Amino acid sequence: MSGFFSSLLENIRALPGNLVRGLRPGVDSQNEVAAKRLRRSFIYHIHPLRVTERALSPWVTLGLGVITATCFFVLAVSGILLMLYYIPTTKSAYQSMEDIQYAVTLGPFVRALHRWAAHAMMITVLLHLVRVAAMGAYYKRELNWVIGLCLAGLVMGLAFTGYLLPWDQRSYWAVSVATAMLDNVPLIGPTVKVLALGGQQIAQATLLRFYMLHVALLPAGLLVLLAFHIWRIRKDGGLAYSKDLPESQAATPAWPHLVLREAVLIIAALVALFLVAMFIDAPLGIPVDPHTPSNPEKAPWYFLWAQEMVSYSAVVGAFVFPLVLSGWLVLLPFLDRQANSVGRWFGGRSCKAAVAMASLAAIIGLVVFEWLYLRGGGADQTIASTPWLADLLNPAAGMIGLALLAAVISGMATGSTRAAGLSGIAVMLVAIVGFTLMGICRGPDWVFYWPWEEWPLVN
Amino acid sequence: LSIDLAKDARRLRVLLLLSALLFALLTGWIALRESQSEWQELQEKFRRQTKTSTSQKLGIIQLPTCAGTLDRCTTCHLGMQRKDLSGPEIEQPFSGHPQATLHHLKNKVGCSLCHGGTGRALTSKVAHSMPGTRQKDPLLTQPFIQASCVRCHVPGDQPGMQRLSDGAKLYLLLGCSICHPLTGGGRGGWDYGTDLRSLGRKSLAYLEASLIEPTANFPQSTMPTFKHTFAGQPDLLEDLLIYLVSLGLPDPKNCSKRNLQNETMLSKACASCHSGKAGQASGRFEHRCLYILERKSELKCDGCHQESIPTAGLGRGRCPQINQHRSNCVVCHLERKKEASP
Predict the structure, then answer these.
(1) CA distance B216 to chain A (A)
(2) What is the pLDDT of residues B302-322, one digit of tens each?
(3) With an 8 Å Cβ cutoff, is A429 touching chain B?
(4) How do the residues of chain A divide into helix, strand and coil, expressed in percent and rounded to 5?
């Protein structure tokens, strides 16, 4: 009895010192440097002790990975806040969105933050992918490159599943269009569609499944893969660079030079997101009406390129092009094993010229294909009447052919596998951007209108 | 090394401090902005005007409606149920509701079912526009509010729907129904003009322009102008506009008649279709409308009703909802005293 009280009294007397020692490990260590490292052990799980001076330059990575990760944490926090009010039933979903938008304290701000951070993440994750590809940084980092591709896929999945949740006309019909594209994927397409929708139509089951995917399965997967992705960068030796670069010696301490740079970047990204969310509200359309499709029905903007291609040829847009693109990206580090110029934009002068030529050819090719295709106000009747010919002769198929052609010509002209790989990606990127712009310009009945032209009124 | 490490570290710490400060200021601004809201200011103003004691808690006031929605309108429109505040000298948002229709507010019909607008919103800008739009003049007031009556009431059953009936008459007299026939499931007849029920709620300015200058809203329109018909007859134009507005309004969704507290109205509504004593309404259902009886085989059940109707045992107060708009009925059932069927 007395032993208990005496030891408790002793512990209380030693509390101030133990608090400091317990919460700041290594504070009474004799070796000040070792103590600091111990305290910063979390940081040194992510960064090595010393990094190259090149890693400090903002022009190497453009901070895209850090911004993407910042967006993810903003999305996680704002998403959890939204979950406090959101009800995933077809009866209440829109009403709970109205509550968040109109009555909940900070509701519109948190919702706008979630929406704009999601769009920002979509963009930065793709730019990050392009940056890593353009620098050849996938060299001998096949695993992390493939994980990165999976992360990009997860981000798209998260954006897509989140699109349905407001349960307004825009979200309902956008998801209806995007899932309808699955019908054109051979063998697995219809099964995947039923699995995703929980039936043949978008209904309560769909909303619940999308909600579960959006708040549980996909974020959990993203979190695990993201941790792995960041850890692999550390294990692969930080930023990719080839030994032929002069500033390749790792001599700068990561603390504070790299870590504080990242901290400033994170805060800058937060400030930017907060400012946008403060002044631009997230849109909330009119409630779902399954009997009245909007005209035009458009997929979310990041799937618009696929929808545009589907309007030329269903099988090319929904299956062949995505397959070629993802296959190309997955195989890139295995088919391009060139060690030189890793970490340089577009891998040296001749490669740069080849990629520039390929991009130029892609832009010209796209304009010519579209002009040939659209000059009669749509597909040529003789071609359109033969299904296999229609699948073969359209702008989408043309761009796939152009990508293969550009890759072969660049490879032969430069003798570089990197030039070949990047040229193909450049052509497909031009196609994606071009078809997205085309998709934006589509009006009622999928007719092309210039942005300054007014759409006719439709019933 | 080409950079001065000590200088770089110092510069970074200053930069971090500045950016953190900026972020803190921004967060403070957001919090400050949130603390001032329109409805709280209006409630303060109402307290001062009516000398209500500050101990009486107001806050967000929300009315559940029979359609399963919430109306927060009375958070700002605080004088609605007060007799002493009705009169022309008291301006909105604090004036009282006309006594003749005030029972709607008490019987869980709420505000937005009749007046339109976004009932859940707490800012005037959003609350006074249709859900998800920034459409001007969405709130229906006299005389256009009559268009809303037909969402729940059979035309001619209730007083105060005269101008709507007049508008429906004009719709027939002027020949609107020749091109815009409003028959059966969706578009019928000549399939020529736009199905006016598919347009949704349009602003009065839009509807008026469509009558006076049809190409103003729709350049390809071949509709003749009705400018000369309505010249010097603004009342007639208004009557037709009331009917046109009613066409764009949907039937209230999820509206279960059980929620209506007015028992007599409920029994009347059931007994109007089911045979049997009023108040029990247990008999077999029979259509009484000659128009429907004549065309029963063409129309099919799901032509008008949202779901397929079982042959027996629907019961338990669940009334099959009518998909097609009740405004159809107005065309024939112009007045209460006239003969029951066309």
Answers:
(1) 11
(2) 555 545 454 444 444 445 555
(3) no
(4) 70, 0, 25
